[in-house]
Specification:
Layout lengths: L2 H19 L8 H7 L4 H12 L3 H19 L4 H7 L5 H12 L3 H6 L39 E6 L2 E9 L5 H15 L8 E6 L12 E8 L10 E5 L2 E9 L5 H16 L2 E2 L5 E4 L12 E9 L2
Antiparallel strand pairs: 1-6, 2-4, 2-5, 3-4, 3-8, 6-9, 7-9, 8-9
Length: 304
């Protein structure tokens, strides 16, 4: 392990945490945070979540709620005023979010005689603290996942991919895979035993509305395959990749990416390289049990 790599990623995330924590009344500029870390928004999102235990937007929302909880107990500001200050457009949306976090409505929290906590659970240890000039001092700690992640580095050849573009929430990419599967079945693409399903993700899910997120549902094919009508052809360049294998439900993939990018990568002595990250699916969710689904995660890497 090269210490400077760990230091690089930790320093980048600490700087971003400080920027979020000291700008609670400003809209988050996720692209600016990513540029400060010299990463794409998608890579930055995963590194940040892996190290801090939450995304920048989740951190921003949590600290605003902690500030609101403190002011409910210490001031007479109206709930409506605190809701607006916390970034909620209506009293009702603030009450729902506050109740989900604290188990009480804002009014009940304010009137309770019990000594209620204002800090919410946080792996990084970063909380709203009014005694430090609204987060003027931030010192997060990054423990990482105690379970080691089995990651290898591999040099892959160029990959030829036939794909359909998916626009919308990432969890619904399965609908686009179903359409691609029907095309592949009808045109004989599955006749090649080497054909493998692949997903490419282009956008940071916090940086765009869900309805505008872009990803590709694809199938890796050989050079001799003819491209069916209406299908994109994408060529992924050869290169060096870090590979991690996730076994289990696809719902666990965001966490697996966070561990790969936020825990393994900073310790590896490597940095993110040029190119797109992708997922390869090694078995069929229509026939395999959910607990036995095998997904390989690939991220391009380079020496620092």
């Amino acid at each position: 392990m090269k210490p400077d790599t760990r230091s690089f990623y930790e320093s980048a995330v600490v700087a971003a945490v400080r920027r979020v924590a000291t700008s609670l009344d400003e809209a988050l500029d996720l692209h600016a945070l990513a540029r400060g870390a010299c990463l794409s928004p998608l890579h930055f999102h995963r590194v940040f979540r892996g190290l801090a235990g939450e995304t920048p937007l989740e951190l921003h929302r949590r600290l605003r709620l902690e500030r609101a909880a403190h002011r409910l107990r210490e001031t007479s500001e109206s709930v409506v005023s605190l809701a607006l200050e916390a970034g909620y457009e209506t009293h009702e949306s603030f009450t729902r979010a506050f109740g989900a976090a604290y188990g009480l409505s804002p009014s009940a929290f304010r009137s309770s005689a019990s000594c209620l906590r204002t800090a919410l659970a946080s792996r990084s240890g970063v909380h709203f603290d009014p005694s430090h000039d609204v987060m003027s001092r931030v010192d997060p700690h990054f423990h990482g996942d105690p379970t080691p992640m089995n990651v290898t580095t591999e040099t892959l050849p160029s990959l030829r991919v036939f794909a359909l573009r998916h626009v919308g929430p990432y969890p619904r990419i399965g609908e686009t895979f179903a359409r691609l599967g029907a095309i592949a079945q009808a045109t004989g693409l599955f006749a090649d035993p080497r054909a493998t399903m692949i997903a490419l993700y282009h956008d940071d899910p916090e940086g765009k509305p869900e309805a505008e997120l872009q990803s590709d549902a694809g199938i890796v094919v050989t050079q001799g395959q003819a491209r069916p009508e209406g299908v994109l052809e994408i060529v992924l360049p050869a290169g060096r990749f870090a590979k991690a294998t996730h076994v289990g439900s696809y719902a666990g993939l965001p966490g697996a990416w966070a561990r790969l990018m936020g825990d393994w990568l900073p310790k590896s002595g490597l940095r993110v390289g040029e190119g797109l990250p992708f997922e390869l699916y090694r078995n069929d969710p229509r026939s395999a049990k959910e607990a036995e689904l095998v997904t390989e995660l690939y991220v391009p890497v380079a020496a620092p």
